[in-house]
Recover the amino acids of this structure.
């Protein structure tokens, strides 16, 4: 039991750091807790912790965000949550997990490998409404399953080369809205029944501490190191999700 509590505390702190600006880090939380419990149970247990750290993160980044991205991605994310709610009883979780991992690996291949093969850097990509609606919807679907919406979200947003703090704020606010939309869906599916609320309260304190730590690191890290760290987190997460998805399907 003590090992499970330790895993949960670490996961909560990581969740907070992601809301403070280290975007992809938070998506490692569910795979970490899933070492000790079912992934959907882990996602439901951590959702209230996400919501608390979301509130702190939104306040910290209340003046730093990309409004055009939010106006496009948040409604699309809501559509994704609705789709995932309808598909969850029918399709295996492993299928969503595998797809999420492959999306992240595909983006990193295009962002890291192809430019080096061509010996040129990937130019900033202009926003496209169709692409934003698609990736926003996929973000909502994958975030619903295991809070792992970073790969599709970053596939759309990272190529825009937003300023560091604007990227962090856009990420935090977008996922705060999507997480809020997941509450009635999780409740309707019975995933919120029997949660240990005193434990969640304690984990929320760790998450709040992590939020301020993430904000501090985001401010002091140079832009190129910050983006490299985000991509390393994304790579590790995508490999983990791909392996986990394949293992669940085979």
């Amino acid at each position: 039991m003590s090992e499970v509590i330790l895993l949960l505390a670490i996961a909560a702190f990581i969740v907070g750091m992601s809301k403070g600006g280290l975007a992809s880090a938070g998506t490692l939380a569910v795979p970490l807790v899933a070492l000790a419990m079912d992934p959907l149970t882990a996602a439901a247990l951590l959702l209230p912790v996400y919501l608390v750290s979301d509130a702190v993160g939104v306040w910290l980044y209340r003046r730093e965000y990309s409004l055009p991205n939010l106006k496009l991605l948040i409604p699309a994310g809501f559509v994704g949550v609705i789709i995932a709610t309808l598909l969850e009883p029918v399709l295996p979780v492993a299928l969503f997990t595998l797809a999420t991992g492959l999306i992240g690996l595909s983006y990193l291949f295009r962002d890291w490998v192809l430019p080096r093969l061509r010996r040129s850097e990937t130019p900033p990509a202009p926003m496209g409404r169709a692409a934003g609606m698609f990736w926003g919807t996929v973000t909502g679907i994958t975030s619903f399953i295991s809070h792992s919406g970073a790969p599709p979200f970053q596939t759309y947003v990272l190529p825009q080369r937003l300023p560091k703090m604007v990227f962090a704020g856009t990420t935090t606010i977008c996922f705060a809205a999507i997480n809020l939309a997941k509450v009635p869906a999780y409740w309707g599916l019975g995933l919120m029944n029997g949660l240990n609320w005193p434990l969640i309260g304690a984990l929320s304190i760790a998450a709040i501490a992590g939020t301020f730590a993430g904000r501090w690191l985001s401010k002091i890290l140079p832009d190129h190191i910050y983006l490299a760290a985000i991509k390393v987190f994304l790579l590790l997460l995508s490999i983990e999700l791909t392996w986990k998805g394949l293992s669940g399907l085979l």
About this structure: The CA atoms of residues 17 and 214 lie 4 Å apart. The first helix runs from residue 2 to 20. The chain has one domain: 2-249.
